[in-house]
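Sequence only, no structure available. Ideas?
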Amino acid sequence: NNQSGKVPVKNIERELICPICKELFTHPLILPCQHSVCHKCIRELLMLNHDDSFDAGSECSLPGSPRSRVPSPSMERLDRLVRSGGGSVTPRITTIPCPGCQHDIDLGERGISMLFRNFTLENIVERYRQAARAAVAIMCNVCKPPQVQEATKSCMDCKASFCNECFKLNHPWGTPKAQHEYVGPTTNFRPKVLMCPEHEMEKVNMYCEVCKRPVCHLCKLGGAHANHKVTSMSSAYKILKEKLAKSIHYLISKEDQVKAQITGLESLINQTEENGQLAERRANEHFERLFETLQERKTEMLRSIEQSRSRRLDQLKGQVEEYQGMLENSGLVGYAQEVLKETDQSCFVQTAKQLHVRIQKATESLRTFHPAADPCFDEFVLETSREETLLKEMCFGGVPDPPLIDLSSSRVYNEANIHWRLSEDSLPTDHHVLEYRRQGDGDDGSTWRSTERVYGPSTSVSGLEPDCLYSFRVRSSRNSMFSPYSPEVTFHTPPAPAFGFLFNDKCGFSTERLILNKRRDTVESVAGMGFLLAADRVQTGSYLGLDYIIGDTGISQGRHFWAFRVEPYSFLIKVGVASDTKLVEWFHNPRDTSSPRYDHDSGHDSGSEDTCYELSQPFTLLTLGMGKVFIPKASSSSSVCSVSAAGDHGSRILPMPQRMGICLDYDACRVYFYDADSMRCLYERQVDCSGTMYPAFGLMGSGKVQLEDFSTAKRLTF
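Reply:
I predicted one. Tokens follow.
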């Protein structure tokens, strides 16, 4: 036990190590979070490994700098640094994570010029260095070789070390130098006065209790600390010194408690080692028993195969010997030929009767030849897939249950956004790994591709090919032990890349009857004042008009796909594409009413289509309403994709999918309508792709359309 309460300098090395370079601090700077970092280390962090630096060539970068700060750079220099960092609008080089507490530290445009040097820490490091190299003397900086003497004093004003004689010569009595401050031999020279980093020529003489840092009188008068509570430096010194002394005294008084806790931790280390070895031995024993069981079953089953093989070979070889006897030069035929030579009738009859039975039997076996044994060993084929699955899923009791992929939240376009739900296991998992493969790449298991570790319940996979089936599965890890895989789920990618757009509230948008949300990815039709004002026309049999809205981005080439949701309660909603060349004329000549009977894609059985009216339309649309999809009659320019949609009226009405998808092939002049969940094509038709084509929607009565996230995600980030 240290009676003096002092800790030897050599025992505090861990407190003097920079958290970045892992070496003794060199000119440490104090971060706003009160952690210290080497000047060179924080400069490298700020400059993102650029050769250029905020404070390159500044006086603070010199070991003997008398200043406590680094001069701020000019704005031109800052702009140049930002441009060299990639042209980002916001200079990323001003924000770093503190290596001590991991909190983000924003140093502003002036960078490390706002930071104090930690002179106290510098002095402690220097004392540590001197203690570590006590045998190495500090030499006089004035003596001329080869008669260089060992230094006995270091002058803080001259920033040099002197032997006794040289010190007297350089600090004669009666001169200003005689008043210089000197200490014992050292290589660490610090300024007498700490200067304010905000105001270069001002000394710090107060302490801000809000920001917990020294400030000067200008900071208090009109600077960043104008409204903060400050105290005198002497008062802050006294208070903090008392607090620190009390804290140190408390720690020293608890030395026995700390030692007991260290002993407890060492005991836990030993227990961990022993228990780990015990668990390893037990696991080995279980595997040895499994190996023994497998070996026993292997021996028994191989013995069964061997016995069956031997029995069959004996039977077949016996049959071969029997048939060998039928040959001319074999025993049976030769014996029969000798019997035929017998001239005594009674003797012949006595012998020939039995011989004839044998010959007849051999003849019959020739007519009905059948092998004595089956060479096929199909009944001995071993099916081990179930056992292999069980072995792969074999795990410790602490292994997490497999997660489940959430089909309702997952979406797959050109990239997949897969979500999963964790099991109700209360223990947290370390990470997850998502695996995926394209169906048709083979089923040998080697085609599965894995993502990086995922620490949340979802991840994205990019680079998926269009119009393909992809399988996904996920598993969790806890303490380096993986759960079994989740059940595989399959998604069909769209037939074309996802097209991103938002609703356009400028082109023909009806502010009276249509409502857009702030994100412009949802449009809703409401029966408001306009509906009430049209009540007289409704009574006379006229129809309400469709309110149209288009996307804010157009298509002039290639294949594109977008998806959306239509609320099931929607009365009548049309979805498809519109041509900009016809939209101008259309909106210059608005129509109050549009009878569904004459809307060529309305889905109503209107008999013959009005060809002239169809050609004048800017829209190519499919009708949805009240939870149904109305498939138009097939014409020369259209075809019904759905296997359930035939020519009769009833089969042209399909249940409305949860998500609808549209694919426009601009170059082929065709538009396709899909069930976006199964990627089943419901209907396709030819379309006049003149000019630029836009996603288009028409709403009548109450209804709501919401674009899918993948159609809007990239747009909403800007």
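Confidence is low (pLDDT under 50) at residues 1-5, 49-92, 591-614, 643-647.
Hope that gets you unstuck.
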